[in-house]
Amino acid sequence: MPDFRLPDLGEGLTEGEIVTWLVSVGDHVTVDQPVVEVETAKAVVEVPCPFEGVVSARFGEPGEKLAVGSVLLSVGALSTSSPAQSEEPVPSEEPESSEYSGNVLIGYGTSDSPRRRRRTPRTATIPAARTAPGEAPGPAVAAPAAPTTPAAPTAPAVISPIVRQLARENGLPLHRIEATGPNGVIRRADVERALAARASSSGTSGAAGSTGRRIPLKGLRGAVARKLTTSRREIPEATVWVDVDATDFLAARAALPSVSLLALLSRFTVLGLKKFPELNSRVEGDEVVVLDEVNLGFAAQTDRGLVVPVVHGAHTLTTAELATAITGHATAAREGRLGPAAMTGGTFTVNNYGVFGVDGSAAIINHPEAAILGIGRIIDRPWAVNGELAVRKVTQLTLAFDHRVCDGGTAGGFLRFVADCVESPITALADL
């Protein structure tokens, strides 16, 4: 029977955490049928099996991490024999009824190299030892059969995704939770009881007040934590900001219903990077590498935490195309459908933290990029217009930049250019 191993998930990922098994032992699977959901540091992906046959064993439980190359499940051949056929199987290099596609996460490093072949074990018969003349021959002795591998235990039954998420966020393996629901189903009360028991046991040896809820820094959350830590440790950043009259910016948004405020700001950002390409760069060793392509990332809040989808080749897109790409990426990110390739390779990031009701923020640069631009909430504020006081829609633009790639003059010039586009968006878009 062929073993299906966790494939290369791409982008340097070396492990994945099992989220949900989509098949059970004994199920029939077809070629390229998704068999398990795996969470990586980039996204939750469905892993398809390249074989057809019957699942004979599963390896790993929900919440368990497996390294790339570890066996996920074993698939046996479909039964085509009948009792009238010979009891002894004919050894074969590969089950004749098993099919193989090789299409495991296409585009992420799946190898089509030949797999190691196995022979079907058989019970050998050892002939009786030779006897001396006149002695009766002894009976033939059967060699002991090769030990069989027991089938993997069935995964704990969990119906509610909320219960599964609660256990995963608190680092509770499902197979260690005592189930009290019908037919062995794990209920929310079971998870909460296990959490209370763990808090009680840890509280007896810990300091007062140290028994709060623990959230493991793993998966996407862990990847974000590592990147932010690296950014703070390696990048000598500086921050500049400016208040902007966004009244016409909102009017332009109303005139372009298919273009969001973030898409408009992204368009102005791309134009600014053409004038100030030093900010579309990264530091590699003792060199500043100014990049030719603008791969624009944008911060998006999802149920799994903060993610940064990337629109590759943003400098080649029209305003409408850029808006469509941003909307599509944001939707896919919130639904957990965004693959690893769509969240890597960014060269500059924009962030609309105004949706959280704040005016400004000294954002952390998305390492290894050189800068991040943010926009705060847009509110009514007094503003001088042609020498007279008026109430206008005002926002704040903030730019955090790597001081190694440019000085304040370049950063200020870029920020002022984007601010001018926000204040006069029709003029900025006139040539597009």
UniProtKB/TrEMBL annotation:
Positions of region (Disordered): 79-153
Span of domain Peripheral subunit-binding (PSBD): 158-195
EC category: transferase
InterPro entries: 2-oxoA_DH_lipoyl-BS (IPR003016), 2-oxoacid_DH_actylTfrase (IPR001078), 2-oxoacid_DH_E2_comp (IPR050743), Biotin_lipoyl (IPR000089), CAT-like_dom_sf (IPR023213), E3-bd_dom_sf (IPR036625), PSBD (IPR004167), Single_hybrid_motif (IPR011053)
Source taxon at top rank: Bacteria
Molecular function as annotated in GO: dihydrolipoyllysine-residue acetyltransferase activity
Name of the molecule in the record: Dihydrolipoamide acetyltransferase component of pyruvate dehydrogenase complex
Annotated organism of origin: Saccharothrix longispora
